[in-house]
Structure formats: structure tokens, C-alpha cells
Amino acid sequence: MKKWNLVIDCALCHDCNNCFLADKDEFVGNDFFPYSGAQPWTGHRWLNIHRKERGRYPIVQVCYLPEPCMHCDDPPCMKKAPEGAVFKRGDGLVIIDPVKAKGHPELVDFCPYGAIWWNEEAQVAQKCTGCAHLIDEGWTETRCSQVCPTGAIKLHMASDIEMAGIAASEGLEPYKPELGTRPRVLYKNLYKWHKIFVAASVGYKDVDECAEGALLSVSRKGVKEGEAAANNYGEVLLDKLEPGVEYEVTIAAAGYKPYVTVVRPDESLNIGLVLLEKA
Ligand code: SF4
Ligand code: SF4
């Protein structure tokens, strides 16, 4: 059976908020029973875009993480909800029943992702429905995937076996897997969110030039984790490192004394300007 899966690429999202606004356009003021009552004008973020800065000037990156309901296959919201107030469709979508869930604000606390919102006026808990009403009409996109200008959000209607193959070939992973909820929303390039980089600006002291090609290598307990070469501005960055781990960082270029330092960064680290001296 084809099921609903959403893939979000952190490397492609640039925080334009088109997806957020499309969600508002679809659900604010519109009832889609039996899947949702109207979303209120303010206060809800059914597609919540999180933002994180990495590094320090002048080597800074920003990562965006759009987060809808994960439509988990093992959803705590459904397990803890009163009988029938939350249900799962055959295609994987998890739905809060807009009638049975009335008067149950505690539902908001049952989602470990914070994806459930309380509608004070309607006295009902609400969240992303995965555009279930559109999927029922044969849509092959959600509103958010349809409007994303960079292709950062993609809907896959696929069997679980097909999706496992896509996940393996594209290196997809769940957000916060430690929650154990088996999300149907998977992320690409999620390392930008939960891993860190070490970077530097490298130059040659004797000639006052950028050290293009200088190699920054990172080792952990004597084992090399990776290396990267400086660009023509002398900037070098090695990504996908673990936060809170002790690393030995070496910056080297032929004919120059290597620069060596030991770091234990909790966040992405820009070492700053490193001027290599003649050997
Ligand atoms: S529409 Fe696409 S690029 Fe824009 S914020 Fe949403 S996911 Fe990011
Ligand atoms: S993300 Fe939260 S609201 Fe959505 S299915 Fe999982 S537990 Fe339920």
C-alpha cells in the first residue's frame, strides 16, 4: 500500500516561509471535517520553522528546520488520547478528530515534538493533517511541498519498502530518533542541524597571502575524522563533527610549520585567523 511520507532537505530550505503561509492559506478559516476544524488566525505554527546559526563571523552558516507533525507510526499522542480522539489512517496520516478531541487541552502535552496546538476559541487541539483532505482528492503534493521554491519539501506516496530504499539511498534520517516514535517525516542533510563544523581563515605570514589549498584535518583519539582544503580566500571548513568531543585540529601546508590545537566544541567553531610560518 502507498503511504504518506514527507522528506525535508535542510540544505535546500532558505526560510522563505512559503510553506508556512501555504499552510495558513489552506487551514485558517477553513473547516475540513473529519480531519480538522479551522486553524485560528494567530498563535499556531502547524509547520514550524526552526532556525540555528553555526559558526562565528566571518564563517557563519544558518540552518533551517521546517517541522510539521511527524505523523509517527508509533505516536504517543494517539496512545495517550481519549478513545478515538486521535486516529491513524491506513496511509500513515495521524489525525486529531476535531469533534472527539474537543475539551482535551492535555493533548498538547502528549506530543514530544510540540506539534499539537490548542485552539482556545474552538476548545480543541489541532495540528498538521498532512493535507489529508487533498490526498483524498488525489493530490500528489501537500500544500507545503507544492509551494516550496527550492524543492526542500517532497511528498512521497510510497510503500514502506519503497520508502526504506529511498531513505537508504538518500541518507534520510528522522529528527530526534531518541523519541522512538517512528516518524513518517524524514530529513536530508540533517547534519546541518545536529552536527558541528570546525573552520578557520588561513594565510601565509611571510607573504601575507591567503593559504589556498592549506589542509585542515581533524583527529579524534589519534584517528583521522576528515580533512578539507582552504579555498582561494583561505577559508576552510570541515563539517559533520560531533559536539562535545575532543578533537585535535591540524592546519598544514607544504613548506610551512603546521598549526596544531586541541578543541572540545559544543557548537560549530571558527578558530579564526591562522597565519602559517615558514618551516
Ligand atoms: S517553502 Fe521550502 S524553502 Fe521556503 S521555508 Fe518552506 S521548506 Fe524552506
Ligand atoms: S509528531 Fe506528535 S502529534 Fe504528530 S503523530 Fe507524532 S506524536 Fe502525534
3D structure, described in words:
The chain is an alpha+beta fold and 279 residues long. It folds into 2 domains: 3-193, Alpha-Beta Plaits (2-Layer Sandwich); 196-276, Sandwich (Immunoglobulin-like), CATH 2.60.40.10. The protein has helices spanning 18-27, 76-80, 132-136, 143-147, 160-170, 191-194, and strands spanning 3-9, 48-56, 59-67, 86-88, 94-96, 117-119, 124-126, 153-158, 185-188, 196-204, 209-210, 215-220, 223-229, 235-241, 247-252, 259-263, 269-276. The strands form 6 sheets. Strands 10, 11, 14 and 17 form a 4-stranded mixed sheet that branches. It has a 4-stranded antiparallel sheet with strand order 13-12-15-16, with no helix packed on it. The chain is elongated and about 75 Å long. The mean pLDDT is 98.
List keywords for this structure.
279 residues, alpha+beta, Alpha-Beta Plaits, Immunoglobulin-like, 2 domains, 4-stranded mixed sheet, 4-stranded antiparallel sheet, 6 helices, 17 strands, 14% helix, 35% strand, elongated, binds iron/sulfur cluster
Q: How many DSSP-defined strands? A: 17
The small molecules bound here are: iron/sulfur cluster
Q: Helix count?
A: 6
Overall 3D geometry? elongated
Alpha-beta classification = alpha+beta
The domain count comes to 2
Gyration radius over CA: 23 Å
Distance between the termini: 65 Å
Binned, the helix content reads 10-25%
CATH fold label of the largest domain? Alpha-Beta Plaits
CATH class of the largest domain: Alpha Beta
